[in-house]
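User: Can you help me understand a structure? I only have the sequence.
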Amino acid sequence: MNSTAGTTSAHRIATVAIATGILGKATETGVRRHVAMLFGGNTVVLCERMVPDHAPLRPTFVLDEHTDGFVAFMEREVGKAVQSWRYGSSGVAFGRAWRAQEAFLRENHVSAVVAEFGHLGGNLAPIHDDLGIPVFVYFRGFDASKRLRSPRIVRRYKAAMPRLAGVISVSQSLLDNLAEQGVSHPNSHVIPTGVDTDLFAPGPERDPELILMVGRIVAKKAPLLSIDAFAALAIDHPQHRLEIIGEGPLEAACQARVRELGLDGRVTFLGQQPHEEVRRKIGTAGVYLQHSVTAEDGNTEGLPTSIQEAMASGTVVVSTRHAGIPEAIQSGLNGVLVDEHDAAGYAAALRSVVERPDWARSLAEAARRTAVEKYDYRYLHGRLEALIRAECERAGKPVPGTVLA
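Assistant: Let's start by predicting it. Here is the structure, written out as tokens:
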């Protein structure tokens, strides 16, 4: 068990446990914020494993540390069958691993658990049975889209629902996906990841000729369609350029398409960039481009954090009517959306915001207002804390942050 001091107080304080799969992944902005900030930072962490050399911010329980060795291996294998029969999920800790996890929760006075992804909800829901602790699960994208194609996963979700205190999703679209498979909970809420609207704000200088893409270069973002849309614009607008931040399995194909189109000097692949550089680029760009689609394997977005960041930065978003994106972007009012795979419409939408700067400016200003009003993380954290507080009080548990006698 890794641990760092969660507070400097000598008092015992009730905490909330934030559960994730791999602790330390740079892409999990919302998870990091929850660990650092929920209930004034009175948090601990449950994870399956941890990125090497990651220094945890809060007391941390790493499940993998309790599954080493032959005996632990055999116990884990037996546990898969037992826990599948008992709880519908083979990922529920078993034997000594379960007892160690339970001891960690008791020692750190955990009053509630937030499982940050769907499968973790199934693995951790039984905590409620043993300790009476309210457990919530957050659905964020693939866990309520691609994974629903597995009957085993759907059964796991259904088995977990009666033990959960609540279900949270970053978009209504994901809750709808779950409901279509018969997975629902009476205490369900849409609470997006959100954005720091102080950090992500219009930059001091706007570069209207910069078009930006940010994110994993993967099928559900259809990056080739964005490159083709830029290519159509580039014919008449030789001063514009496209920059792509991120890496992924389609990067080589995208680079090949750029060479094929003769756009080597106009399209730049920047790879992974530090958060500060991403923030600076988004705050500078004239247009943020993202053609999200449902991938062949069923994977979808929830509500992309990068789109929320672009909105907060006053950068015009050109995207698609996909998953939770239309819940944030009202096409023609605070951004522009087209149907998935509508290559011609997408190229036309990009051209329209480039060639109508006054309209683009009004879209950007409206997007900024929307982000401040609806997607600032402080407002969203407040909603999540209110939900947890109500369930703790109903269950007779101290609210996280409470000083205990």
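Now, to help you interpret it: The longest helix spans residues 377-395. The chain has two domains: 15-194+377-395, 207-374. Let me know which part you'd like to focus on.
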